[in-house]
Specification:
heterodimer; A: 131 residues; mainly alpha; Cytochrome Bc1 Complex, Chain D, domain 2; 5 helices; 32% helix; B: 527 residues; Uridine Diphospho-n-acetylenolpyruvylglucosamine Reductase, domain 2; Uridine Diphospho-n-acetylenolpyruvylglucosamine Reductase, domain 3; Vanillyl-alcohol Oxidase, Chain A, domain 4; 5-stranded antiparallel sheet
Amino acid sequence: MSKLVGFSIAALFVLVVANGPPAQEQQTFKSAWTATPVSGEGQPRGYVQFQDYCAACHGEGQDKPGTLALGAKYKGAEPAMLEKRTDLTPQLIKLYVRNGITVMPFFRKTEISDADLGAIAAYLTRNNKPQ
Amino acid sequence: MRTPPGVSPEDFSKALNQFEQVVGKDWVFSSDEDVELYRDSFSPFWHEPEDPIPSAAVAPETVEHVQAVVRIANTYKIPLWTISTGKNLAYGGSAPRMSGTVVLDLKRMNRVLEVNDRNHYALVEPGVSYFDLYRYIQEKGLKVWIDPPDPGWGSPVGNSLERGGGRTPMRDHFAAQCGMEVVLANGEIMRTGMGALPGSKTWQQYKYGFGPYVDGLFSQSNFGAVTKMGVWLMPSPEAYRDGTVMVQRHDDLIPFVETLAYLMNSEIVRGTMLLESPLLSYRASQGGSVLDMPGGPSVAEMEKVGQEKNLPYWSATLHYWGPAKVVDAQWEYTQEKFSAIPGATFKAGNSYRFPVDADKLQGGPPLVALGIPNLSVFGLLQSTQGHMDFSPIIPMSGQAVFDVLKVFGEAYAELGVAPQNQFFALPWAFFPRSFVLLFGFPIEHDVAKNQRTRQVFKRLVEVSAAHGWGEYRTHTAFMDTVAGVYSYNNHALMRLRETIKDAVDPNGILSPGKSGIWPKGMRKARA
C-alpha cells in the first residue's frame, strides 16, 4: 500500500499569493484519477496510464471497487487485479473502456485518449503467454 | 450523420468544419462510434429510442476556443450542451437532454489556476477533477483540504454548479463557490462578483461584488458556459474525530433531530451526517422495508424487537474537524446535549491527528470525510448496472422523517411496487438546515423494468410535491417533471427564467431543456 503522500508536509512550500492567475503558477498537467502522482521510472509502457486512469477502481485494496467486483465475479479462478491477469486482449480492454460493463461507465476520448488506451492495453497484456 | 433538430445537414457540415478550424480536427467528434461515448452511462432509457444521443461533440482547450465555438453555434443555431468532466452519473451523465445537441466537452480545460493556502481558496477550470486539484495541493504542500463528493472524478466546477455536496464542513459546494467567468451565448466573456472589476484583488475572496448577485443564474442552468470558477477551501485541520449517538425509542427522533439541528446550526457539529436506524435496517434485512408499509408492524412491536435484539431505533455518526482540543470539546458537548434524551448512548469512533499514515485509515471513516478523492463508493453499487437519484429536500425535523416513511410507504403500496434496492430511505444532512433523501433507483439493461422505474419516479415526484417536498437536483429525464412542480403563482419562477433565457440566449443554443428551461420555439404549453 503506497504511503499517502498527501499527509506529509513537503519540505519546500510554494506560496501562491497572486491576484489573478499568475503565469508561472498556471499548471497544465495531464488530468488523472489518482490521489498521488505516479512515476513511470523503471516501469513498463502503459504503467503510468493504468495508474492514472484505472487504478482508482482496479488497483489493490478493499477500497477499489473494480477489483472487488472482479473478485466476486471470478471467486479466485482469475486474479481480481487486472495487472495480474495474463489472458486479457487489447480488443477486450478497449471494449470495456469504450462500452462499460455493469456499474463501470464508458470513457470518452477527452478522458482516455486512444493513445492512452493503447498504452493501457500494452501494459495489461505485457505478461500474456505467447500464443 | 445525425443533425441537431432544425439544422440542415449543409449547415451542420459547415459548423463542424468551422469547429475543426478552431479546436483542431482531433477534437471534433462526429462519427457514430465517438458520439456514443457521450451517452448517459446510467441511462434510464437504455435500448430505447428516447435515450439521448448527441449529434457531435467539441472539445475546446481555451476560453478563446469556447468563445469561437459558441459564436459558430449561434450562427447556425446549433444547440450546445456543456459538460465539465462529464461524470454526472445518476443525473444524466455526459448526455444532453435533447438528442442531436452537440456536447461542448470542457474536459481539456484542466488548469488549476491558483490555490491560496493563506486565505484558503482556489481558481480552477471546468476540466479539473477533484483528483487533479488534490494532487496539485499535495505536490505543492499547501495547507488546504478539498471537499470531494463521493466519486472523486467529478469537477469542482461542474459539481458546484449542480449544487452537489461532500462530507466535510465545506459540504455545500455551491455555497463555497466564489466568483466565476462565463462565456455568454453571444460569445462574450463575463466575470461575476469582484471579477467584474478589472485587476480585482478579491475575486475569490468576496462573493457578491456590487449590485444584483447573478452567480446563481449559472447553477443548474443554461444561461452561459462557465469557464473558470473560484472555490473556497478548508484550512487543513489539526485533527479529526467521529462518534456515534444512539437512541432507543421511535419518538426519541423528535428531540434527537432538534438536538442535532441545534448543534449543527451552532457549528458545533459540522459536515455531512446520515440518519440511520439499526432497527429499521434489521426490518429491511428480514424482508420488510425501512419505509412504513401499510399493514406493517406497529411502533410498539418494533420497539419490542429493538429491545430483544438490542438495536437502537435511531443513530447517527457525527464528525468533527479542527484543533484536537476543540474537536474533543465538541464531541464532549455533543454527548452532554444528547444525554437529555433518556437512554441515549454514545460510542467514540475514529480519532486522528494529522499527518497520519495511510495504513491507519483502514477501517476508518470514508476517505472523502478526510478530503481524499477516491471511487470507493462504487464498491457499494456492486450489484447494480446503474442508478438514478430521487433527491427531495425535507424539513430537518423528526416529524418530517416520520411523514416521509409513511407517505412513501403508502406510495409504493399504491403503486404495487416493493421498495427494494432503495439506498438511503433515511435522510442525509448535506446542506444547512435541511435534510435530503437520496433514493437510488436501480437502472438495468431491461426496458420494461426501466419504464416501470420511470413511472415510479414520476409518481414519487408528484407525491413529494403534494407534501411540500421538492427535489434539489434531478436526472435530465425528469427535469421537466420536477421543474413543473415548482408552480407557485402559475409557474412565476419558471416564467422569470424563461424571460431571462430569451434575453441572454435568444437563439436558444445553450443546453436546451436544462432544468426544464427551453428556448422559446421549443416550449410546450404548460398544463
